[in-house]
Request: fold
Amino acid sequence: MKYLHTMIRVSDIAATLRFFELLGLEEARRADSEKGRFTLVFLAAPGDEDAQVELTYNWPAEDGGAPEQYGGGRNFGHLAYAVDDIYESCRRLSDGGVTINRPPRDGHMAFVRSPDGISVELLQKGERKEPAEPWASMENVGTW
Reply:
């Protein structure tokens, strides 16, 4: 058995791609289906192309009706990524307009959410970093 990918449905492919690019993922491949009216975009961390996230974007109805909307279910849980420097990763995301829902106060773990509310856990690779400001005194924001 081999892990292939995790699929998440997205309502704004451009915003979601921007989020995951800020996170450090890169587009591995893309497929558009005219007949099925959807786009699939596969993303992976550089050097870890076997573990992918599939973004599924269902196109708006041909009749001009409202596009599908997706609510997050807690039964999904979250995606998790090890990062080389949790503080730098959170700074880059924050500078890009992403809310850090659970700041890395402990130098080890943080949570953010994609534009569609998908929870993403960031874990410091290797040893936990010493607590540092501004992260050490930040409060949680929203849910994660």
Q: What stands out?
A: The radius of gyration is 16 Å. The chain has a mean pLDDT of 90.
